[in-house]
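Let's practice the habit of predicting before peeking. Look at the sequence and jot down your guess about where helices and strands might fall. Then scroll down.
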Amino acid sequence: MANKIIITQEDLNELSTVFGNVDINGDGYITASELQDALNQVGIKIAGHEVRELISRHDTIVKDGRLNYEEFKQLYISLKQDRDYGAKMKGLVRKASGVTTVGGMSGTSAEGTTHSVTDDERVAFCNWINKNFAADPDCKKYLPLDPDTSDLYTKGNDGVLYCKLVNLSQPGTIDENTINKGAKLSIYQIHENLTLALNSAQAIGCNIVNIGPEDLHAGKPHLVLGLLWQIIRYGLLSNIDLRANPGLAALLMEGETLEEFMKLSPEQILIRWVNYHLGRSGCGRQIQNFTTDISDSVAYTHLLHQISPPDFGVNTTPLHEHDLHQRAEQMLQESEKIQCRQFVSANDVVKGHYKLNLAFVANLFNTYPALDTPANIDLSSIHEETREEKMYRNWMNSMGVSPYVNRLYSDLTDGLIIFQLYDIIKPGIVDWKRVIKKFNKMRMLMEKIENCNYAVELGKQCKFSLVGIDGKNIYDGDETLTLALVWQLMKAYTLSMLTQLAGTGHPIVEKEIIAWVNEKLQSGGKSSRINGFNDPGISDGRVVIDLVDTCKPGCIKYDNVKPGTTDEGKLANATYAISTARKIGARVYALPEDIVEVKGKMVMTLFACLMIRDYQPKKK
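Done guessing? Here is the structure:
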């Protein structure tokens, strides 16, 4: 009988640091290559197939060929207790170069808990903020942030910089009129700003679970860096698709269709873009990742030379330097000629820091894509993502699903994302033994359809209206039918949260939300009312504004409210209403256009989110 693994408090205290040090690309999972690299560094030399066996043996929860935190915990403890490996495993706990270890900073942190944060990310994010907001008068009192100090955690903790960064990544998300600004803000105003920033970040797809306004105000490094990376990543990758950059059609492989290309993730497209320019350079190099394949700066040097306008004088002289750090520095000096020296230091390049190298390349692409749209390719068939589709994607990503949803239809075809959503909405409903997580190449199509059939079956258990929908529709990416399922998932999530808070003893239905809206407006002395979620009177935004002001009296500055007689005025009111709703704590996903166009489904979620906020226990 195998010995039972005993996990001590000391083991738990050091585990967070170990996980952060092994998870090189920071995506929250340990891959076989990351694990092998980490074990090699501490003198544990085992073959690749043995590493894969270790991963397989402990990949017991999701079974996706990599380890999440809980799975890694079992592997780490078992290796540590092995008499041959125990002493060497301690090497994974030691502070790595460029990593700062900070103690737990919340009341819920166990005594001795630590988190590892990289100094490289702090420096990179400081420089990005300094560059983008140097000319913004509202940011003058915060900038420049000193990347060598804790400025990133302390200077911006009143929420203004976070709000500005959200708007940089997704322009127009936050109405500037709702941001509290001034020489000295009260703790109440600071809390409002931070709440606004967090709820707006969530609305664009950031996962803010376990991050609260108090965490940002306290400047907890691991939470601040995690949130900033999500916001910055969103902005950097948002335009890396054919709809925004038709020139990407030049990257199609022989025989590849536009539809197939559109299924690639932004990261995969960036690798394809780099390789396209490397091919044109004739250097004979190609890359497969943003870690080991770029660490010698050869690919970067050729890429910069290819994409830079001739009159900037970018050249390949760094290739003559043999020292890798010196070569990386010289390469970055070349990137500075085109004002693209961002995110990475020479050391980040040499050690292959995944996040920062991804950001560096994405910024290069956004600045100098150097692509011409092929004349022989018809782009008219490209599906342009609708606001509704984008909102659903953002909602899914904010729930923390994995992998990240880049394409609404193609990313749902194996059912795995849908199962995660069911599990969030109604924990325990998914029988994970029925879910196929690793697909056999010979049976992949049938296995994915089998998953999708089970996803539809679960929807029927949840009383969804799924007439005429089967698993094959989801697998095929049928837009209308997939949207029907996704909408009901989001609706179920929203109403389940509302039901829990309302304490009615029965599920909340839509007519109860309408009744609450009108009762709330009446109790607040407002004259506006609605007769349903499709009421044309909602279009000017004033009823939403009145409801928000009733939920938190005085939060609306009626001087900012427009008459709402023009399309421009209606949109301004709707934007102001949604930003203020988020500012007072409502986690709204709906967009201003949904109010102006009176999109009944989205209007329902907006009112439901305000109702949820109204039922939440008031913090003292």
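How did you do? The CA atoms of residues 545 and 577 lie 5 Å apart.
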